[in-house]
Amino acid sequence: MNEDTLSGLLRCVRLRGALFFHVECVGAWVTEAPAAHLIAHAVMPASEHMMEYHVVLKGSCWAGITGEAPFEMNEGDVILFPHGDPHVMSSIPGLRAEPDLEHLVSTLKQCSGLPFMLCQEDDFRARPATAATKGPENASGAALLCGFLGCDKGPFNPLLTALPRVMHARAHELTDGSWAGQLARLVEAQSRSRRPGGEAVLERMSEMMFVDLIRFYLGNMPESQTGWLAGLRDRHVGRVLGLMHQSPADAWTLEKLSSHAGLSRSALQDRFVELVGQPPMQYLRSWRMQVASNLLVESKAKIATIAGEVGYESEEAFSRSFKRAVGLSPAAWRRERSVPPAFS
After folding, report:
1. Using CA atoms, how far apart are residues 256 and 247, in angstroms rounded to an integer?
2. For 60-70, how does the pLDDT look when each residue is reduced to its tens digit (9 = 90+)?
């Protein structure tokens, strides 16, 4: 195949990174992040979905979804919240601090130009623990990189539903020369000397770190796992997914796809439904709508041209299918959306 299926999907759902915080935490401390959708308009207004991640640059801490058991984090570890859950970062487990949403949004809106890297000052430092919950005074400090990733949520992003609520990768579990490690080193250098173009490089590297985390998750999934990534891993279903993603406009039929997969039509249908959750031809229709939505906002091509590029013989048939899938006509969808930089 000419194109890696995962990379193609990330380009089509317009994965991008933006806004980085380099945080120095000392003593007993705690900071609590609200649900990502509550601050998304201030951070990544052009993205339909926002994820938050943290990389431990130095020291150690604890991190986890609010109200759930936290993970111990050490230097080089990465934690990602794919569904934008509210979460807590602290020097010891069990500390809480209500997020100051108004102050956070106000600060984020003052950042001119995205991506933006901010070394935290005293007025935006991780807050000390209260007397009621304060941990030991000799709690270890930590230096953190806190960042955001955005992407399209619709019309069809099968990757999001396949990811868990939290992804934690320890430094020793990541490959040598991982993008997380490179990102951490560049942040250190950028915090000492603001070189031109540094923030843009960080943006690209954060996207590659996301790919690293997905590869890590994919490599550690149990055999019984289902979902889009499980389908991608399967020899037969993965082949079919690759074909549909590579050439969505082709006149695919279940018979043609099963021939490429080396399975009978019924066997492919059953295997695809079991792993991906829907029949192959239904998946193809959904993926065509995602490709079309991307072309509508990132190109100036005529709607009739886009219809042909996703396998429709007429603009009218495409427009009916698109409106049925997303609730808006292609022209209305195009008007409502801006054009952020695409994954590359």
Report:
1. 13
2. 999 999 989 99
